[in-house]
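Please, structure for the following, as tokens.
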Amino acid sequence: MPNDVAMEKAVKDMAAINPFVAAAKAGCDFREGKFLLKFFNRLFRIDHSSSSIEESAADGQGTPLSRALKLVLLHYLINASGAQVAGEWITYRYLPGANFFESRFQSMGILPLQRRFGRDIEGFRQACQKLGGDAMSRTGDASYRFLALPAIPMGCILNLGDEDMESSVSLLFDAASPNYLPTEDLSYTGSYLAFT
């Protein structure tokens, strides 16, 4: 779906939702006509009636929002089902319809992380902590858990390589994530991790 059409549909769908019900299902606040929604370590104010989005930055200088990020934020509020976090990790390939987007997810999420941090565990740790990640006990040389959105935990695991094996990165999603975002939008969260 072209971005302009997707954005028009999201704006229309956004205007049709009950904001108090949507906020409760999404796990965020709704005040003075705006949703207060966290994405990783950033806070956004999303106007219910106009779908305009602004970042609440501590220094007052929010980073400009990409169209993809705007769609992710709107789609999250529109699609939020209120389902409980499953507490079970799955890889991208096990999300519904992932075969249509998996190569893009690999090239925009996994491979850049491998190239950037495959031999730099300390850099990986610092980058994860900067994005609000918490260390978790999983297999791998370093593992971090993020809250991409209030009901979408993500995991990122770095396995350092050696002379016989390449380094690898795994990105994990909570199994309940499809109750909140389409699979295509979930691929964006991986690329966000890679390029932030």
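The longest strand covers residues 142-149. Residues 79 and 180 are 5 Å apart (CA to CA).
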